Amino acid sequence: MILANVRGRLRAADLRLVALALARGDETRRARYERLLLQQGPDRLLDERGLLEALLALRTLAVPSPALFTYVAVRHTLLAAGVDDRELADYLAALILEFGDHDRHTRIRRADDQTYGYLVDMIGELTGVDDTGERGFLLRVHLGNYSLWLAGLFPDYVEARRNRQGGPDLPYYDELGRQGYRLAAEHRLAERFGVAGIYRTAAQRFPTLRVAFNRLSDRVLFPHVSTPAKLLRHL
């Protein structure tokens, strides 16, 4: 299962790159950021205003690791949306990294024969599975994760499918994603794995998280794509 562990994957080289990016070529500033890292730890440096822009603007042979860039992108996008929760940002960064690996987003875990292309398929299986067991728990989690992944990072795809085939709209994903995380938070395994609080917050803030992911997608994943739906999101 996906855990909030992206910050734990960061290495000294990542943090040196953060100081380099923030310094923007000024050695005095770089020394100050390195002192800040030593005195207050990595979280303070990773929250520094302008870090995402600085990483995007890097023009050196050194590039951010996937873990560093994804965490910073998610954390700063959530901060801009008024969501100041490092653990939640850590989890959602892990979600992006995990679901971005081939077809992982269609499976409730890496090693699983069943794939899901539609939310209704997950709901259908949930009605017939043991609610107290591991599979029932993972299905609940996946309902929340997949809803946020698809509607958050690919809203134009959702909108195009709705226009062409009469598919569900973004509020539909908000509602089912919220239900998935809420049900997952209530499951006995959520407390056991220490993720109940993350799921609870994700359920409570789901529409805000989805809109934040829309902005992250527009800015970082598809900055040069222009669609009517994208224009409306930025009005």
User: By helix and strand content, what is the structural category?
Assistant: mainly alpha
Number of helices: 15
Low-pLDDT stretches are: none
Determine Rg (CA atoms, Å). 19 Å
N-end to C-end Cα span = 37 Å
- Proportion in helices: 55-70%
Task: Name the beta content range.
Answer: under 5%
Mean pLDDT: 93
Give the count of structural domains.
2
Secondary structure: number of strands: 0
Main beta sheet strand tally, sense and closure: none
Secondary structure elements and their pairing?
Blueprint: H1 6-9, H2 12-23, H3 27-40, H4 42-46, H5 51-56, H6 66-80, H7 86-99, H8 119-126, H9 134-153, H10 155-165, H11 170-186, H12 188-192, H13 196-204, H14 206-221, H15 228-233
Helix pairs in contact: 2-3, 6-7, 6-14, 8-9, 9-10, 9-11, 9-14, 11-13
Descriptive report:
By secondary structure, the protein is an all-alpha fold. The protein has 2 domains: 1-83, no CATH class; 100-235, no CATH class. It has helices spanning 6-9, 12-23, 27-40, 42-46, 51-56, 66-80, 86-99, 119-126, 134-153, 155-165, 170-186, 188-192, 196-204, 206-221, 228-233. α9 crosses α14. It is globular, with a radius of gyration of 19 Å. The two termini are 37 Å apart. The mean pLDDT is 93.
